[in-house]
Amino acid sequence: MSNSTSTPRIIAENAVSIPPRAKKSNYPEPFASRMQGREKRALGDFFGLTRFGVNLVTLAPGAESALLHRHSRQEECVYILDGHPTLVTDAGEFPLAPGMCAGFPPDGVAHQLVNRAARPAVYLEIGDRPPGDEASYPVDDLAAEQADDGRWRYRHKDGRPY
Amino acid sequence: MSNSTSTPRIIAENAVSIPPRAKKSNYPEPFASRMQGREKRALGDFFGLTRFGVNLVTLAPGAESALLHRHSRQEECVYILDGHPTLVTDAGEFPLAPGMCAGFPPDGVAHQLVNRAARPAVYLEIGDRPPGDEASYPVDDLAAEQADDGRWRYRHKDGRPY
């Protein structure tokens, strides 16, 4: 099967057959190590999509989706497929279950998923990729901005680089 | 719970508790009637997201997701939650099952999901909303372009309006 370019491209796949990302996290230490129990399969990237990401994420017991954060521009949405992660926000905590979804407009509540259950949690995360995005972290000494090349640059809150 | 604006906003919900769209289809007749077995819940819109849509779609037995189509600019992705819809494309047909996903870069294969099974099919569809998008329909006498106001305008292939 092929699309209109000359490169044959797979157009349907079992999501769990798509290899997880080798690099666990872009965060600097000590934050990267906290993401060891998180596994992401980049479904959208696999199919050649570029303007938004659709990731199949598995959180082992005890793992977290990200540091508590909010984006200045990116829109985010999650849909729970399995397990019972907790949505932790700076406006309260909400237990999630399969079939539940959550959405995060830019500059809204800070948020993260934390898996406090004994079984893995599995969900889809969707986010667009607007230029000039920034992420802020209410709890951790971290600030992030996206450079023109799309890469995230991390600083301490006082401006010092990591 | 509220975000940084003054309007309280729900940030997590059971997807099936979000009401389905009242209007079944934007297509002109005779195509709109073909979409009667399709039900869409606009999850992303519910949470105030604007730049991409995340819809929970149910296809009754016999129903189809859309006419066979491709977009000039929109990126699309689907993730099957339940049931066994068939991915119909102009490059062949592919049986889908829960846990499978498919992605459609712009100007790729024309595609639609058709539920030939005896049970409903349920899936998430994700698509961004780039300006100036057009949709083409290899099988049906239809051409669509998005106006500056975001609305789709439909014509016959010879240019006559519907």
Radius of gyration of chain A: 16 Å
The CATH C-level class name of chain A:
Mainly Beta
- How many domain regions of chain A? 1
Q: What would CATH call the homologous superfamily of chain A?
A: Jelly Rolls
- Report the order of strands and helices of chain A: EEHEEEEEEEEEEE
Order of adjacent strands in the largest pleated sheet of chain A: 2-3-10-5-8
By secondary-structure content and strand pairing, the structural class of chain A works out as mainly beta
Distance between the termini of chain A: 45 Å
Number of strands of chain A: 13
Number of helices of chain A: 1
Helix content of chain A: under 10%
CATH architecture of chain A: Sandwich
**Coarse shape of chain A:** globular
Largest sheet data of chain A: 5 strands, antiparallel
Largest interface in this structure:
A-B, 47 and 47 residues
| Average pLDDT of chain A | 94
Task: Give me the oligomer status.
Answer: homodimer
Given as residue ranges, the uncertain stretches of chain A (5+ residues, pLDDT < 50) are 1-6
CATH topology of chain A: Jelly Rolls
Strand content of chain A: 35-45%
Structure description:
2 copies of one chain form a homodimer. Chain A is an all-beta fold. Chain A has one domain: Jelly Rolls. The first copy, chain A, has 1 helix and 13 strands; from the N terminus they run E-E-H-E-E-E-E-E-E-E-E-E-E-E. Chain A has one helix at 43-46; strands at 12-14, 38-42, 52-59, 70-71, 76-82, 86-89, 92-95, 100-104, 111-114, 121-128, 134-136, 143-146, 152-155. In chain A, the strands form 3 sheets. Chain A has a 5-stranded antiparallel sheet with strand order 2-3-10-5-8. A 4-stranded antiparallel sheet of chain A has the order 4-11-12-13, with no helix packed on it. A 3-stranded antiparallel sheet of chain A has the order 7-6-9, with no helix packed on it. The termini of chain A are far apart. At the A-B interface, strand 1, helix 1, strand 3, strand 5 and strand 8 of A face strand 1, helix 1, strand 3, strand 5 and strand 8 of B.
